[in-house]
Amino acid sequence: MPGKRARRHFSQLSEFERSLIVGMKTAGWSTHRVAGQVHRSECAVRNCWEQWTRKGTHARKTRSGATRKTTRREDRRIVRQALTDTIVTRSTIRADIGVVIVPQTISRHLAEANLKSKRPFRALPLTPEHRQLRLQWCQARSMWNVTDWQKVVFSDEFRYVLGTDDNRVRV
């Protein structure tokens, strides 16, 4: 199985393998013999044994950064809840999960799942038939004067936002 040994050469040692290495080396086995038994390089066995003799532990180093607040299962639940209910908010998801996390964590999990918020359509895109009908309407009224146009009520409005939040619904 030389292919298997080459593939596993660069992966992390599991806790079980570390315990085996320490046990075999304590029993007096050579580094070469232990490496052949656990299918790892002699360098990996030597490093594990040196850590055991120097620090008295074979556990891996702790990772830097903040500890995870959610499990993989909770991460999947966040994504599933966002997919099933399109107008759910981050605070609602956080309350349903039952774990104390910041809203940015939920946003990050959704972004990792390629889910991004977007504004819903204000109107459906126009089809070629709709465009033709609008053009005919405009051409029929192209000769109107000001008094004719004063009788028309325009309902098309645009919203200008001076602040940071426009209170629009995002899905």
TrEMBL record:
A GO biological-process term: DNA transposition
GO molecular function, one term: DNA binding
Entry-linked Gene3D superfamilies: Homeodomain-like, Ribonuclease H-like superfamily/Ribonuclease H
Any one GO cellular component localisation term in the record: nucleus
InterPro entries: Homeodomain-like_sf, RNaseH_sf, Transposase_Tc1-like
Residue intervals of the Transposase Tc1-like domain: 75-140
Localization of this protein: Nucleus
Name the UniProt record assigns to this protein: Transposable element Tcb1 transposase
Native source species: Trichonephila clavipes
